[in-house]
Amino acid sequence: WDETHFGKMGSYYINRTFFFDVHPPLGKMLIGLAGYLSGYDGTFPFQKPGDRYEQHNYMGMRGVRLCRLVLSWLAFLAFQYRGLLLELSKSLPAALLTAFILIFDTGCITLSQYILLDPILMFFLMGAVLSMVKCNSCADRPFSASWWFWLSLTGVNLAGAMGVKFVGLFVVLLVGLNTIYDLWDLLGNLSLSLVMFGKHLLARVLCLIVLPLTLYTAMFAVHFTVLNKSGPGDGFFSSAFQSQLIGNNLHNVSIPE
């Protein structure tokens, strides 16, 4: 059922047809992009689960290029040198075991076969946690190139997680609590001047608040720019907005304030 749901929305992006959905747009835009790049023309109706795709080139939106790719990266993120589990546990066997579990987990294997948002969400969730842990490991050399890189990448992954599904808020909460703990620890460091503490605070505001919000807003800017044709989502928006959609009954009609 979910594949029918999100596959249809991928088609909407390819056809530039406006629609409304409860989830933010990033995951569905990536599904549509994968379909477009792999030669899918957006013509399959996705009317009900179980319909045969026949000659339609749907594999790009399924696991071959997108979902299977991002899930395979989860194992790499778990195992990569000084990666997430290796950084947290300092144990090579623990990192190996986690990568093995991810590779052979039935749920992950199943998710990688269909057109779903979950693999993309899982990628950004783990990416955010990995970036946070790597940034913490650079605490002894603040404001270095690696410190800025991992802090900024944490913000990018937070925007990605929130841009796929709102349950990404949980990783935002995790990173937020870690940041509060980190700042509280810095505030209690008597050898650190208030000016330096202010720099730490400003860096986190820029990378973990301003950057994610900017990227999150940019996703919707792309969403509304691409979907410029009338579709099933018109009725959720104002008459003034509908007048901007090609093919709508109100298109180019003068709408009084």
UniProtKB/TrEMBL annotation:
Domain ArnT-like N-terminal: 1-228
Top-level division of the source organism's lineage: Eukaryota
A Pfam family: PMT
GO CC annotations, alphabetized: endomembrane system; membrane
Residues spanning the signal sequence: none
Gene Ontology molecular-function annotations: mannosyltransferase activity
TM helices/strands, residue ranges: 63-81, 93-114, 148-181, 201-222
Recorded topology in the membrane: Multi-pass membrane protein
Annotated protein name in UniProt: Protein O-mannosyl-transferase 2
Taxonomic path: Eukaryota, Metazoa, Chordata, Craniata, Vertebrata
